[in-house]
Amino acid sequence: MARRPLPLTPEEFAAVCARLDAGSSDRADLKAATMHLIALLVEKAPGNSVEVRIPPFAAVQCREGARHTRGTPPAVVEMDAATWIALGRGRLDWADAKKRASGERSDLSDLFPLDPR
Question: In the chain, what are the domains?
Answer without folding.
Answer: 10-111 (3.30.1050.40)
